[in-house]
Amino acid sequence: MIKVGIVGGTGYTGVELLRLLAAHPQVQLTAITSRKEDGMPVADMFPSLRGHVSLAFSTPEKAKLNECDVVFFATPHGVAMAQARELLAAGVKVIDLAADFRLKDTAEFEKWYGMPHSCPDILGEAVYGLPEINREAIRQARIIGLPGCYPTSMQLGFAPLLAQGKPLVNESTLIADCKSGVSGAGRKAEVHTLLAEAADNFKAYGVKGHRHLPETVQGLQAIAGRKVGLTFVPHLVPMIRGIHSTLYATLLPEARNTDFQALYENYFEGEKFVDVMPAGSHPETRSVRASNKLRIALHRPGGGDLLVILVVEDNLVKGAAGQGVQCMNIIFGLDETTGLMHIPVLP
């Protein structure tokens, strides 16, 4: 059994980790930390876990995280890098759901997250936890920086186009028009996520620049092996969970006769958590709710030179906790789907 600890289990990604790991056949939940809720049974805070999780929250000092096989950080940015060195020295694998180990350029990290990076040496060995792209590197990793929820949808949506030997689209003018439910903002109390603010409303934000932009460009350029230009506009929509990303790419003249449906189906062949739907489909966020599945559909309006890629995912599962469990499975040599084959919830 894999002994698992979770640092910061009181937020939405923390409870999602608990939901997934409590039912994982190869996991022993060993510790979950919260300084504020020290001593409180987890099921008292999250009644959905009654009968499934018997742990109580504890401070990191009491939790004996060094005795775990892997520790997940479902914490604000900056927490994982403060504790990673000690855990790695004890032989513990680290999977961070925040941004501490995503951006390879420390100056970029400091620019977008407003804090210095305290362990650039560890950042240098961290593996970006997008299994469909970095599976082999994840197998050998000691520390994983999980992608953000928006970047997961954008990178997997554009990947088949960029992974070819020669450009198929104008790679300097990629556009991502993305929408997220309010759980993407976390469980903390903020005015813009209050019911009276977010309900019956739809708005863009971060148009000047969003912290997920440099992460996504870094990933897309690694896939392409060349420079990529991206315009990314996120939106907040009045739903609890889910991401819908509409991606746009302009075809190059020499690529007009490419069978893009076949290109995507071949690229993702065998991937259990990426579903390339029939051409012309319109995937809905509810079709992936509470699952680790990401669905993609392709459109070419009027048969013209604009390729439209629709991508949906659950921001808390494939966009966060589920992807973390997927990486854990790879690291420990388990079947990648173990504990993750949940059927999406309808209605």
Question: Any chance you could write out the topology, listing elements then pairs?
Answer:
Blueprint: E1 2-7, H1 12-22, E2 27-33, H2 42-45, H3 60-63, E3 70-73, H4 79-89, E4 93-96, H5 106-113, H6 120-125, E5 127-128, H7 131-139, E6 143-145, H8 149-162, E7 174-180, H9 195-198, E8 203-204, H10 212-224, E9 230-236, E10 243-250, H11 260-267, E11 274-276, E12 294-299, E13 306-313, H12 317-331
Parallel strand pairs: 1-2, 1-3, 3-4, 4-6, 5-6, 7-9, 11-12
Antiparallel strand pairs: 7-10, 8-9, 10-13, 12-13
Helix pairs in contact: 1-12, 7-12, 8-10
Protein name: N-acetyl-gamma-glutamyl-phosphate reductase
Organism: Noviherbaspirillum autotrophicum
Pfam family, one: Semialdhyde_dh
